[in-house]
Structure formats: C-alpha cells, structure tokens
Amino acid sequence: MEIHFVPASMKRPTEQQLACLDRASAMDLRYDYFFVNISLSMREFGRENFPGTPALDFVYRVLAAAENAHRGIPGQISFTENDLLISLVPDGTEVTVTRSWDPAAATCSVDDLVAASCEFCKDLIDDTVRKYPAFQGNPFFSKLQKMQAALSCGCQASSRDCWSQ
After folding, report:
1. Which CATH number fits domain 2-158: 3.40.50, 3.30.2450, 3.30.310, 1.25.40?
2. Among 68, 82, 100, 117, which is 20 to 30 Å from 49 by CA?
3. Which residues have CB under 8 Å from 128's CB, separation 6+?
C-alpha cells in the first residue's frame, strides 16, 4: 500500500485564515484549510487519485484507521468532500481493504498499512509546517503529533503497549 500527496497541489489558505491559523478550531482546520491532491495505490487496485482533498482531515482519518487496524479493530477512511469510503478490516496480521465505489477487495499486512500511514502523515504534516509554521502553535497540531507518535510507535514495535502511551 502507498499513500502519497502532491506538495505543490496544496491550496494556500486565505489571508484571513492564515491570520488566525494558530487559534483556528480543529474542525475549521480539518475541513476548510490545506486542500491537496492525494493518491492511494494497492497491488490489486492500481493508483487512484483524489484531487482537492482536505489534507488535515484525511491525515486525522488515516491515523485513526491505521491505529484501529493495528489494534485489530475494523476502521474506515471517509472523505469530507464526497461519499466515498475506504474500509479496513484486519484479520490477524492482514488487512482487507474495500472501497465503496468498487466491489474489488485488496489485502496488505497490518505492518504495511501502518508504515504507509506513518510515512504519509509525517510527510504531509511536515510539509504543512514547513509552508505554514504558525500551524505548530495550534492545539490541533499537538493532537495530530500525539496520534502520529502513537502510530510511529506501532511502526517500530510489535507490542500494542505503545498505543496506550
């Protein structure tokens, strides 16, 4: 599994949004800031593109779904801007991935899902901070960092103990 974004596709927030970036609500940041083009690839699906995706909402949903899969709990990645849905159903060390718009299923290891999620989220958050340093002052940035740290722990450890940190 691979999840990527195109850094140059990130839509610049308005001047008004930038002026209150450090105090914008989590909901505003998730749904109204930082739209990017995202792609998802799996062996069985090939590459699918999702242009104009709310970046921080997608990061939040990917982190939550990957954590659930690591814990053996089914999860979903939904899209803010449409009714598409990616479902993740773990079974032991494997995850079955289905999409609401196509009956074909794909599988990957939980470890591959977590690793792809770690890399994607880190890269997107780092790119956002590089372009908009004031984002680091927002409480939602701290929340994403904590979620990312927990998921990174999952990437590097086989024990589920790291999820409770």
Report:
1. 3.30.2450
2. 68
3. 10, 34, 55, 56, 135
